[in-house]
Amino acid sequence: METSERVGRYVRMVALEGQGTELAGALLRVADDMAAQPGCLAYVVNATPDEPDVVWVTEMWSDAASSEAALSRDIGESGLGDVLALLTAPPDYIEVTPLGGPGLAGLPG
Amino acid sequence: METSERVGRYVRMVALEGQGTELAGALLRVADDMAAQPGCLAYVVNATPDEPDVVWVTEMWSDAASSEAALSRDIGESGLGDVLALLTAPPDYIEVTPLGGPGLAGLPG
């Protein structure tokens, strides 16, 4: 929808001690699933220098409805159940509104 | 270089009061320039819900050398001088290492 505002977020997750690599792997499997969801512009999994148990995900969606639809599915379907089992606490979110720039699919550079 | 590690960062900037839209506009002009720099995978400018003076940039680069080369140019060349003039304080950075997922150019989904 041309009139819907894009939504994005940076999601910070802390793994059980020593499980950062496993957490990143579980999130990369989720990313494979998210790539097929309507409106998913980005779901990039990031390690964190000097904090081996911290993983960030950069999400960008074409609109809020697409984001909600993809993330509110049964957690088994997306693989998010494996992710939740590796966390020490609920994720922290920074909500943003992607405006433009290179790397954002479907937007002018 | 296949063996070089990608680098990324989330950059948080706070505009002078009431200047958030101007700051985002200045950063979108920087983004046009960054799109032409070697190794730039993403330079996405984001507004922030409920914080009109806060702008985030999502950067992803193919390797640290490309990032340093693009960001260490004369600030007049990239347009970053216009950005710095609109800030209340130096930017805050969260450094990350992009691993994969949809939206990261050149990586498997």
TrEMBL record, chains A, B:
GO terms of molecular function: monooxygenase activity
Domain ABM as annotated: residue spans: 7-96
A Pfam family annotated for this UniProt entry: ABM
Superkingdom to which the source organism belongs: Bacteria
Alphabetical list of InterPro entries matching this protein: ABM_dom, Dimeric_a/b-barrel
Keyword annotations from UniProtKB, A to Z: Monooxygenase, Oxidoreductase
Organism, as annotated: Pseudonocardia alni subsp. carboxydivorans
Coiled-coil annotated spans: none
Name of the molecule in the record: Antibiotic biosynthesis monooxygenase family protein
Lineage: Bacteria, Bacillati, Actinomycetota, Actinomycetes, Pseudonocardiales
